[in-house]
Design goal:
three-stranded antiparallel sheet, 36% strand, globular
Length: 77
């Protein structure tokens, strides 16, 4: 089984040594407190791998918008 890392968002994107690096985070906190961002993983892509992933995500976003799951220009959290 593949390891699974839960990601709630991307905190930063860098281009270093010819690769694209996405720093990711998840939210943690107590029930009555403001959740805090906790860095939890870094995804590293070649430029071609980044374009491939971006295309796949854009295609999925369009399908989710058509299904009413996402709204275009939805504010980010």
């Amino acid at each position: 089984m593949k390891p699974v890392t839960f990601i709630e968002g991307v905190s930063q994107v860098h281009f270093i040594n010819g690769n694209i690096r996405l720093d990711t985070f998840m939210l943690q906190g107590q029930q009555d407190a403001e959740p805090q961002r906790v860095e939890n993983a870094q995804l590293v892509f070649t430029p071609q791998g980044f374009l491939s992933a971006l295309g796949a995500m854009q295609h999925l976003a369009e399908k989710l918008a058509e299904a009413g799951v996402l709204q275009k220009n939805q504010p980010q959290q």
